[in-house]
Amino acid sequence: MFSSFRSIFVALVLLVPMSGVAADHPADSLRESSKAFASIAASVSPSVALVRVEGTVDAPAAAGYSTPFNDDFLRRFFGNGMPQAPRQNRPPRQQRVVGQGSAFVFAVDDGVLTDKSYLMTNNHVVEHADKITVTFPDGQEFDGKVTGRDPKSDVAVIEIETAEVAPLKLADSSALEVGEWVVAIGNPFGLSHTLTVGVVSAKGRTSVGINDYEDFIQTDAAINPGNSGGPLVNLDGEVVGINTAIFSRSGGYMGIGFAIPSNLANGIAGQLMEHGSVTRGQLGIVIQPLTAALAESFNIDQGDGILVSQVNADSPAERGGLEVGDIIVSYADKPVSDIGEFRNRVALTPPGEKRSLTIIRDGRQKKMSITVGELQEETTAAGNESAHATDLGVTVQALTPEIAAQLDVEPGKGVVVSNVVPGSVAALAGIRPRMVILEVDRKAVTNPREFGRAIDAADAAGRVLLLVSLDGIQRYLALSW
After folding, report:
1. The CATH number of domain 32-83+94-278, selected from 3.40.640.10, 2.40.10.120, 3.40.50.300, 3.40.120.10
2. Known catalytic residue: 154?
3. Common-topology check for domains 32-83+94-278 and 281-374
4. Would you give the end-to-end CA distance of the chain in angstroms?
């Protein structure tokens, strides 16, 4: 009996690893991945076009390198990694340039009186274009026309006579997760219809410094010059973003690329198709991040939320009851934690519509409703007695009518910074000459003597909260020592 049991046991031991090897062959999963990417290429590539543009730009004289594009184009694509060259002091001259990028069909209008296909791309691809040629992989070629473009988000729409090309489906980019596979398709360096694969490295990049309105998807899928305007797609072949920029110190791929999320791009493109321009909402406030130091100064726990440092007169925010020092924790019933993301949400709100805000004021939570206004053309948004706060390293003086006129501020409200000691507490906190200090620990100051007393009163606490203004922009600064 023992002999029979041992025979059965040996047979089982031999069978288990053999069945495991057959089911888990490593090449099988690789083949499946390969088929998935090939399927994406087959379904998406026909709708991705090579865009050639001809135009005229200012070409400042420079030495060290040459390029068919102007410096602004390079700066928008390469950011701080753009190679720099010394400039000569000569006036700019007009130069005829030829460039190229990518675009993809996202909408088709096949009505009785019109027959057009619309392609989404970047503003910087077509910004200076006098002539646009759109070429598809099957050889179809069309003259393109700019339907509308938005420099602030770097989104543009091109229209052509309807091509026999299906529009790509736009996915909900908010559902995209870090780590997901994505595919970039475009025409890098003129190598048409190139596919690269990577993952989503990060989401919600809002301080890259490329566009006025940013909410970038960061990816390590290889993106290079010429990819601009091409789609970034998920494994279902749906567009999650527009490939827009790279970070590079060499001019080539270094593993960090940025794409405008489809939700933001679609909202902009819809307005461009309908109106040819973009209308943005605004509240009329200046906001800043709620740092740990500021949260402590306001006696709240650091978490989600942004700080209101200025409420413009006769603005939607003022009419709605918002005040300086309020902390916005939700907008339209969704949490607020990032300035860039908050600006995007407000900007995409149609003017005239009401939105709910939840704020924290004086430690208490409050809910209010504000009617969003329309963002107009941007303007700058935002022998005297002296007092010396030697511990802080800042010197202030009275805001006389003469000084107030020079700074374009209201006299008698606040004190002006006349000197800051390098390396001092004030300097490290961001205090600069010409700043006007309006409040100390949430209390208004109108002359240097009041400022000095307020600083002395804060000395024991080892920290102070200042409301300052520079060039019309107010913000809070928290100093500690």
Report:
1. 2.40.10.120
2. yes
3. no
4. 85
pLDDT (0 to 100) of residue 81: 41
Of the candidates 194, 350, 374, 209, the one whose C-alpha atom is nearest the C-alpha of residue 270 is 350
Looking at residue 456, its pLDDT comes to 82
Q: How many Å apart are CA 171 and CA 79, to the nearest integer?
A: 27
- 3-state SS class at 310: strand
Q: Give the bridge partners for 470, in sequence order.
A: 473
Identify the three-state secondary structure at position 166: coil
How many angstroms separate the CA atoms of 216 and 196, rounded? 18
Exposed, middle or buried: residue 386 (CB in 10 Å: 0-12, 13-18, 19+)? middle
156/265 Cα distance (integer angstroms): 9
Q: Out of 45, 102, 117, 154, pick the active-site residue.
A: 154
pLDDT in tens, 292-329: 888 888 888 777 789 998 898 889 999 999 999 999 99
For residue 470, CA distances in Å to 64, 284, 388, 452, 473 come to 38, 17, 20, 20, 5
Q: What is the pLDDT of residue 239?
A: 97
Kindly report whether the global pTM for this prediction surpasses the value 0.85. no
CA–CA distance, 441 with 480 (Å, rounded to integer): 12
Average pLDDT over residues 186-199: 85
CATH superfamily ID and name for 281-374 = PDZ domain (2.30.42.10)
| Tokens matching residue 127 | 């910004």
The one catalytic residue among 228, 297, 309, 424 = 228
Distance CA 395, CA 291 (A): 25
> 363-385 as b/e, with b when 16 or more CB fall inside 10 Å?
eeeeeeebebbebeeeeeeeeee
Grade residue 380 by pLDDT with cuts at 50, 70 and 90.
very low
Output DSSP code: residue 126: H
Domain 386-480, what fold? Pdz3 Domain (2.30.42)
Supply the pLDDT for residue 458: 84
The reported pLDDT for the residue numbered 24 is: 62
CA distance 300 to 329: 12
| Residue in 378, 148, 183, 354 with CA at minimum distance from that of residue 265 | 148
Task: Give me the residues paired with residue 48 across strands.
Answer: 104
* Structure-token pair, residue 299: 């006696």
Catalytic annotation, pick one of 124, 150, 201, 326: 124
Residue 124 annotated as catalytic: yes
The domain spans of the chain are 32-83+94-278, 281-374, 386-480
The shares of helix, strand and coil residues in the chain, as percent rounded to the nearest 5, are 25, 35, 40
Contact 290, 305 (CB under 8 A): yes
Say which residue, 40 or 224, is predicted with more confidence: 40
> Of the ranges 15-19, 274-278, 283-287, 476-480, which one carries the lowest mean pLDDT score?
15-19
Instruction: Please identify which residue in the block is written with the tokens 């190598």.
Output: 191
Would residue 301 show up in a list of annotated catalytic residues for this protein? no
